[in-house]
Amino acid sequence: MAEEDRTHNTSNNTSQDQDKLLEVLRRALRRNHSKKNRRIPQTFLRNGNINPNFLRSEDTPLTLVARHPSHIDILERLIEIEGLDMDIRDSKGRTALSYACELHEVRYVEVLLLNKAHPNLQDQEGRTPLSWAATPTGKRNNFSEVMELLLKYGADANKEDLQGWIPLMWAVSKGSDVIVADLLSSNPGNVNHQDTQGRTPLSLAAELEHQTILGLTEITGLLLEFEADVNAEDEDGYTPLGLAVIEGQKAIVGLLISSGADLEYKYQKHDCCTALLLATKHHEQFAVVDELLQQNAEVNCTDVHGCTPLALAAKQGFYKIVKKLSAHRDINIDTKDLNERTPLSLAAGSGRLQIVQYLIQQQADINSKDREGQTPLAWAIRQSKDSTVVEELLNNKTIDLEHQDVNDDSPLFLAAKSNNSLMHILMKAGANAMRIVNGHSCFWWLVKARFEVKNKPESSVPSRQLNSFQMLEIIPYHSDPDLQENNRTLLSWSAEYGDHAMVQALLEHGANPDIRDGPPINAQIQSIEAKRIDASSNFSKTPLIWALINGHLAVVDMLKEKDSFSLHLLIKERELLGDQEASKLVCKLLKTGYDINKLDSEGRCTLHLLSNVQDTKFAKALLDAKDVEFSLNLQDNARKTPLYYALKEKNEAFVRMLLEKGADTSNISAEAWFHLSNEAIRWIEFTQQDSGSISLLWERMASIDRRNQKPNFGKKRTLLDVLADVSSHSKQSLSFEPSESHISRRDQLLRQGRGQKIIQILAQNGVKRAELQRALRQHVEGLRQAIDEDTTIFPEQKGRLQAQVNEFDKSVNAKVFEIERAVRELLQIVRIFSICLTASNFSKGICLDLNQRGS
């Protein structure tokens, strides 16, 4: 009958009958062996309607009984049923004979074999009944009898399962020396059988000792007695000796070596390690190392990387092995690998403090250099797990703190490049914090490293990062916080990369926030952050502007109080940035609360500088900015207000804006108003006529030359001659048009009967006073400078002299102011460019709009 028919022929059964039969069998197998209990399944099985060849709930009736020892009577009654399939399989593909062999139930095995059970059927894993007999699970140990029965009925001792194992290998894996001996005796040719991974029974004995505590040493001896190949290599490239070394089996190692195992065999697939190298590479197998050394293993052997056993043990942190190897008479403690690293270098780079201490005691070279020029100290810094190894190395007086590797990095530079808090330890030990390499100090590299760490995922950030408090500790080692690196200060770099802690530390250390960048020396490192916003390279920035450009507003907040002129730069040099970019940055800066009324070195505020900005939108945007209070009337060092400079620059639009905001005109001289005109200066007379029209007093008058402080009137001999000539001309040529309907209070005052003669006198006096005032100002400034620069004058005398000069200056200016005020009342000009012709025969006359506000 085919197997499929045998297993699934249930035509005479119902599911209910099958479940009932299995349940009856289970109850019978659980109970004692009374006759009553035995009759229950027997009575049920005699029912001709039940076919016992079925698989239900992962079981068949026959395999169910075979899995329960000491029920031979039930098994025999079951076998009596006509048509019972002796090789029916359960859900795992196992037969009743397979289970009987595993339990070493000799009577079960014998009955099944007598009833034609197949001795070589394989289950789903490819295992045969003999394979299961080699790994017993029951309390009985009847392998010899079971094996004898199986072999008698044709069992194949060489039948492989899916992983290529034969019964002998299963017996080895279970550590059963008796079963191994029986199998070897019956079939000694299997001793060197290899499974799918090339492993032999001897390989398994060497490899599996950690799983089975007892038995494998004896098994190894048995296998060797039957001439097992002691140097057979599996697919992983290991021999039995290599496997025994890795698993730390000292006894088996000694047994294999005494049986001819190659002690110096190089495992090609494992970096050409020898047995001793394997013992120091994987686990701390001290006992094995001791055994190998006693067997005269080469102590200075090397793997494919040039590493010795001592180097590997030092790197792995196997302290006892390091001591054992170092004590060997032939040991070379400073042997270098292919990268020219010594055991001390490897131990330092792995953070093995105890081994570092021991190797230093053994006179290992503390300043050895590898192929990259790095010392043990450099490697200790690179591992950065803790500071103990670094501190241990620094305790040695012969340590070289300033050695530079092939990249010109000293230990301090290496610490800086990884944002390592070890920087402070190195500086305290005497490392040179001010060394400049390729244009940069270690502090610059620290800023760069901190920026890169800030942009990394938190999981990838290395340990021992510098915190804000440690930053404050290391900055004092920077002897010159304003030292320029690549023509930029450290504060500038820190501001660019938004390093809040570094900026704070530098400011507390006295760094100057007003130092502008110079031209970059190395264009390649001018910008490390590839995606940063970069303004024109021609614009020399301050630290605050760098922070502003890159959006580091927290840094801007730190700098804005100490910064003096960044806002001034953005306005004065806006063309280098571009008006649009400059405007955006200025508005952005003002939103941070930056003081718009800060004064530069010339005493000028933002409004002074805006007088030179012809871009109306730019100036208006600033003046109209919310939450910004301008000081409209601030005077610079020359005592000039923004309104004065706007007039001087002929910036009519800005003049109008200032006047609309309420700028004070009282300090503006009469002459200043004429700057708005492109024409020669003209004087005017306000008449008593009802028409309120304006006439010109003279047509031409050149400005005063600042160099000689004397007015130049062309060919006219005196100001009176000029006034007389212009007066005569104006009476003949000017006619008047009706006045505007609205006249200001100032206009009313100017129309109260003042004649031409008075105006001429006041004008003449005003010009003389202006000349005198300039001359006096020049002399006063000269006196002040002379007092400051004269080293023969004692400091207390300088103070008294300066006070006298100031008093003189004040009294003279008070007198000059009186005549200036009188002139302004008569000669006030509010809008020069609003020109209206006052007569048809005088096309260049100027009609002043007197409706502008101002005093």
UniProtKB/TrEMBL annotation:
Q: Which InterPro entries did the record assign?
A: Ankyrin_rpt, Ankyrin_rpt-contain_sf
Q: Where are the ANK repeats?
A: 92-124, 125-162, 197-235, 236-268, 339-371, 486-518, 638-670
Entry EC no(s): 2.3.1.225
Q: Does the keyword Transcription apply?
A: no
Keyword Repeat in the entry? The reply is: yes
The record's section on Pfam families has:
Ank, Ank_2
Q: Name one GO molecular function term.
A: protein-cysteine S-palmitoyltransferase activity
- Kindly state which keywords UniProt assigns to this record, in alphabetical order: ANK repeat, Repeat
Which PANTHER family does the record associate with it? ANK_REP_REGION DOMAIN-CONTAINING PROTEIN-RELATED, PALMITOYLTRANSFERASE HIP14
Q: What's the protein name? A: protein S-acyltransferase
